[in-house]
Write a structure and sequence with these properties.
By secondary structure, this protein is mostly helical. Helix content is 69%, strand content 3%.
Length: 440
């Protein structure tokens, strides 16, 4: 027994553990700072709640690090089905928070099922990709899309654009690592990009360009948009027929490829325009020019950039920031925690947090390289995608170079559901790392 304990301690991933503990401790400290007002009075107890969540998360992390992750492969579909049922229940009976029906709870206690759903989704997709490794790649890709689309759509209609967005890189990176052809992934990325562009361009034309582009009528006039969809669909169909049945040149394949992306993007923009709220669409473009709505959608970006810029090289020092203590930053303990941190620690502090996140991502890559089976490889790839999207979108958002989508900064932002999900994922990565030696 003692030799087993020594073996576990020798192979435990202390690098991941130290990085996570450093980030969580930093998060608690600056959640505390966000709760202090300009008179130096603590007005919230969020840091206490975060300490409790962090303590529970640490237990989860150690438990899953010691637990054999391979035992999750068989029941993965049951976790996935359970997740879908909970998401459906949440959409119907959930609690409204920040304009989305995405929470379940009693009184002050609440959880966000879509956060925990990331792990269930990753398990299911990893299992599917592992079991279908030798099957037809097109059928494999379509099956993977179906697994992805159900939770993605249920979260999007809550509507929770930020959390739904996180599922996309998890899916794409896992499919890429599993050997799904690049052209299939490019088709999906192209369609998604087209959908976003066709959804936000009319809003951009109205608020940023001030209706200077008359051709935008194609995207706002229902009849014109319908005609364009029919025309692009016809071109796509004819290209496929010529290529497949008349053995036309290869460029007919790519013509059909491009026009199918345009057609699907236009169709899906109809749907997204109905699902997403006006303020959510406006957030996707206002970062380009926050001055168009300085007291509304642009307020958060303007105040966040002021906070980060005022931090300078070494910051104003802990508890001496002005933007947070004068309550200029909405949601300052969650989405904009990095703004408070940067104001009080400056550029040097920002580099430190960047370094810790980069180490976590590099450790994910090392684990992926050394993993002993495909199921573990795909799980590690999915978690890498999750950490990447949370980090780059949140930091880009508070710097004013990315749209505001409501994605928290894992480990630092206040919130039990996101913290428990992040720490559980770290525990599973440790389990994968430990079992690269095939010790059970």
């Amino acid at each position: 027994m003692s030799s087993i304990k020594e073996d576990i301690l020798d192979k435990f991933d202390y690098i991941l553990l130290l990085c996570v503990l450093a980030l969580v401790a930093t998060g608690v400290a600056f959640i505390y700072s966000s709760g202090v007002n300009s008179s130096g009075v603590l007005v919230t107890n969020e840091h206490i709640k975060q300490i409790i969540w962090a303590s529970v998360g640490l237990v989860f992390m150690v438990f899953f690090a010691l637990f054999d992750y391979r035992k999750f492969e068989r029941p993965a579909r049951y976790f996935y089905i359970g997740m879908i049922l909970v998401l459906i229940y949440t959409r119907i009976f959930g609690r409204y928070v920040n304009g989305a029906r995405s929470w379940l709870g009693i009184g002050d206690f609440g959880v966000q099922p879509s956060e925990f759903g990331k792990i269930c989704f990753t398990f299911m997709l990893a299992k599917f990709l592992d079991e279908t490794i030798n099957e037809d790649q097109m059928k494999r890709f379509i099956g993977a899309i179906m697994i992805f689309f159900v939770p993605f759509a249920l979260i999007l209609i809550q509507p929770d654009l930020g959390t739904a967005t996180v599922y996309i890189p998890i899916f794409l990176i896992m499919c890429f690592v599993s050997g799904i052809p690049i052209r299939y992934l490019m088709f999906l990325i192209g369609t998604g990009t087209a959908m976003v562009l066709f959804t936000v361009l009319p809003v951009w034309n109205e608020f940023i360009a001030h209706n200077s582009i008359t051709s935008m009528r194609i995207l706002t006039d229902f009849r014109l948009k319908t005609l364009v969809i029919l025309a692009t669909s016809l071109i796509c169909l004819l290209s496929i027929i010529v290529r497949r049945y008349f053995h036309g040149p290869k460029y007919f394949y790519w013509i059909g490829f491009v026009f199918s992306i345009i057609s699907l993007g236009l169709i899906l923009s109809f749907v997204s325009g109905k699902v997403l709220k006006d303020y959510q669409i406006k957030r996707l473009i206002v970062f380009m020019d926050p001055s168009v709505d300085p007291l509304g959608s642009g307020w958060n970006i303007i105040q966040s950039k002021i906070a980060i810029g005022s931090g300078g090289l070494f910051g104003r020092s802990f508890l001496n920031g002005t933007q947070s203590h004068y309550r200029f930053l909405p949601q300052q303990s969650t989405d904009f925690i990095f703004s408070i941190y940067s104001e009080e620690t400056g550029f040097v502090g920002g580099v430190l947090v960047f370094t810790l996140y980069m180490i976590i991502m590099i450790r994910c890559l090392v684990i992926m390289k050394n993993v002993s089976n495909r199921f573990g490889l795909y799980i590690a790839a999915g978690f890498l995608g999750m950490y990447m999207i949370h980090f780059f979108i949140n930091v880009g958002m508070v710097m004013g170079i990315m749209p505001i989508t409501g994605i928290p900064l894992l480990f630092l932002s206040y919130g039990g559901s996101s913290l428990l999900t992040a720490m559980t994922s770290i525990g599973l990565l440790m389990s994968i790392h430990y079992r690269k030696f095939d010790y059970i």
